[in-house]
Structures are given as structure tokens and as C-alpha cells.
Amino acid sequence: MILRLPYGRDAVTADLRGLRCRVLQPAAPKGVSDIAGLAGRALDSPSGAGPLTESARGRRRVVVLVPDATRKAFLPEVLPALLARLERAGVAAEAITVLVASGTHPPAPPDALAALLGPLPAGVVVRQHDARDDGLLVPVGTLATGLAVRLHRAAVEADLLLSISTMAHHYFAGFTGGPKLVFPGVAGYAEIQANHARVIDLTATPPRRRPGCGPGAVAGNPVAEEIHAAAALRPPDLALLFVNGVDGRPAWAAAGPLPVSFPLAVEHVRAWYETDAGQFNRVVASAGGFPSDHTLIQAHKSLDAACRFAAPGAEVLWVAACDGGPGSPDMAPFLVDPRPESIIARLGERYVQYGHTTLRLVEKTGRHRVSCLTRLDRELVERLGMVPVDDAQAVLDRWREAAPGDTVAVMPGAAVFPRAG
User: Fold this and answer.
1) In the prediction, which pLDDT does 421 show?
2) Which domains are seen in the chain, by residue range?
3) In whole angstroms, what is the distance from residue 206 CA to residue 53 CA?
């Protein structure tokens, strides 16, 4: 078997001939060629709501929440389909704001923002959310957990709030997309940190990850449950949700209020991206190429998925370009001393979500030998407990000589997860 493993904007060839391979890949079909048509059909026949052209009629302030470049949403193809229907409903371009729901991620520079959104009609306003700008935020309520939630003023004051997102597993929040476009997408920094902090119980001795916080888990997941409750304080009037096919292009779409459209998307994500497989002593995993492997923060999610199929002490060959470096200055203090006890001590003083990301990473490198093909600084790779490699094929050749009869698990692109339950 010869595979091309996505690596940044290119690929790495892996010759696995002579090794027994179990390919871990989605059961999803290929994505559609006409993404605009797929989006349009969903917007014209939403579940639990009327067509967008009807619900948009007479609206004066329409806000469209979209993900940033760390998520694939094919906005240059999808936004024209949505905006055309707003135009047919009589909504002026000047009444429309496209709000990038970037959560705590940094804003994109102008050229990257233009590439993310594609050409837009003159008059449409584009804004990027800044979670640290208190002047942009307005309070919308306090949850039963005691969390006071603030959201971007434009989203709160819209008389029609729309959202576009791609649904997938999230390694501790259950699923990405859907309600996450609202919270943490356009929420305040303090409440985002408070929510993400629920993933780990720092009062336990030793501190431990809360067991309900995992991929595909919503009920009993304190992070996911709070995300849903916060988003319900100002939910999208119509949420357009996609699930990607095996080739990374959308294969399914639905629109409608989140209580209706979200469970439909979850059903497809589970059916296509969960699999029954055992644990393996050798695993090959690609982080999926750009943008999924642009930063360590994003790429780590693929390692998390791969290690769910790795036996204790297994070796994982991880291919992740990370051309954008770690991904956030908030991660830097944890990278200086990434020992678990040091990270936990820092998190105990003040929770920072990317400290938790660093902790999850070094937990994996403590349990497994992670040989990493990456463009990250070599010294940083070693400090994080990984073995930097310059040639992925050399690792495969070593495996072939050491254990020719062993079965190697290969996750060549989109991550899959053990079947829930």
C-alpha cells in the first residue's frame, strides 16, 4: 500500500508495502461537486422552519456567523448562495454583517480574510470577533452553572441571526460547529476560559480529566452542556450545518433551528466518523494538511484521535507540518516547561485553554513514542516528548524490519474515533 499523507499544502508519500495495514478512515461518501447547490437546497427547505427567503423578509439587521480559517466551511461557495436568498427577500447588502466567530483565535490579516470569505457584494460589512474587547460584548444572561455570558453586540442585536458551520467530533467538547459558532465563537474571553476549564478537575488529587469530556459526548459532558446552554441565550434563527465527506468536501447539509438541525448532523457525524477497531502497537496518522495542521493547537487534535487506537507503549508516526508554529502566544508559557506537574500547577493558578492543550499533548507523548515529521522547531518537538524525524519512510522501514507480521493502523486524513458506547 502506498499512501499520500497530507502535509501542510503538500503531501508525504508513505510506502507501507510489506506491512499489514488497517486503514482507519471515514465511512462517508465523497463530497458533492456543487457545494452552493447543496447549501441552497438546505436553505430553501430547512427542518423546523420556513425557507430563508421567507424568514428574511422585512429584516433590517442580518448577521451571518461564520468560522475562521481553522475550520473548513467553503465560504466562497456557500456565502453567495446564502446572500442571494437574502437579496431575493429584499434585504439590502448594507443591512448584512458577516461576523467571523473566531472565539479566542487571533484575527486574520486582510489577505487571509479575503481568501476565507471570497468576494462579497458591495455594502456587506465584515467584522472579526475579538473575545478580549469588552466594548464589543453585551451580557445575555447567567447560566445555571453560574457562568455569566456575554456575546458580541452585533449578534445579540441582529433581528435575523444566521450561522454556517461544519460539524465534526471535538476532542473534549463533543462536537465542533453548531452551537460553538455562538459560544465560544462570539463570546467573551473570561467565560470561554471558564467553560473550557470544566474539562479538568483541578481539585482532585491528582488533578484529572473529567471523564464525560470527550469526542461525541454531549450529555454528561460539562463543557458541551454549558456550550449548548450559552448558545441558547441567543441562538441562530437558522443554522446551516455541513458534514464533510471522505474527501473533505461537504457531503450532507441541513438548515434549521439548532434543536432540530444539530441532532440531524450528529447522526451523520457518528455514522460516518466512528468506527469499531482495536488497539494497535504502531499507528500512522496525518493531521490532514492545511488548515488542519497549520498550527500545533489544531494539529494536536489528529494526534488525540490517533492515540485512541494506540496500545500503551505504542509508536505513533505523526505527520503534521505546523507551518504556523504553536498557534497562540497563550501557549508559550506552558511550552517553556511542559512537564505535566508544571502545567497543572500553572492551570491551578489560572486556567488557560492552550495550557490544557499542552497537557493533553505531553500526556500522549508520555504514554506513547511519538515520532513526528513536522516543521516545528526541533528542540521544541523534543521538549514536548516527541522524536523529530526527517524521513517518515525511515520509520516505516524500521517497522517493516522489526515486526513484519504486526498490523499497522493508518489514519491517512480525516480523523475517525472509536464508536461511542
Assistant:
1) 59
2) 2-24+277-418 (3.90.226.30), 35-272 (3.40.50.11440)
3) 55
